[in-house]
Amino acid sequence: MGVATRKMRGITLNHNEGFLDINVYFDSVLTEEEEDEMLHIDTYLLSERYPKLYNRKGEVISNIDNVGLNLISISSDIDV
């Protein structure tokens, strides 16, 4: 997705009928600057380059109409 921070622990993606749900997990609360960078993911995915979701073979499996972006902070002593 082109954006990462040192605090990032993991990313999950789920899709269903044109909706892409993205959960991004962090070790601690993001600074305002880091959060702004993460919010660019939403715009990037809906840009003209990536309006579709592809499988490993490069086949279109879904059109992306809406994106849900969740930035989740979880202490590093808790497993995700």
Describe this structure in words.
The protein has 80 residues and is α+β, with helices and mostly antiparallel strands. It has one domain. Helices cover 18% and strands 40% of the residues. The strands form 2 sheets. Strands 1-2-5 form a 3-stranded mixed sheet, with helices on one face. A two-stranded antiparallel ribbon has the order 3-4. A hairpin with a 5-residue loop joins strand 3 and strand 4 (60-63). The longest helix is centred in the middle third of the chain and has 14 residues, at 32-45. It is globular. The two termini are 20 Å apart. The model has no long low-confidence stretch (mean pLDDT 80).
Number of strands: 5
The parts where pLDDT drops under 50 for at least 5 residues are none
Radius of gyration (Å)? 14 Å
Q: Could you say how many structural domains there are in total?
A: 1
Q: Which outline best applies?
A: globular
Helical content class? 10-25%
What is the N-to-C succession of helices and strands? EEHEEE
Kindly state the mean pLDDT as a whole number?
80
Short description:
The chain has 1 helix and 5 strands; from the N terminus they run ββαβββ. The protein has 80 residues and is α+β, with helices and mostly antiparallel strands. The strands form 2 sheets. A 3-stranded mixed sheet has the order 1-2-5, with helices on one face.
Based on the model shown, name its key terms.
single chain; 80 residues; alpha+beta; three-stranded mixed sheet; two-stranded antiparallel ribbon; 1 helix; 40% strand
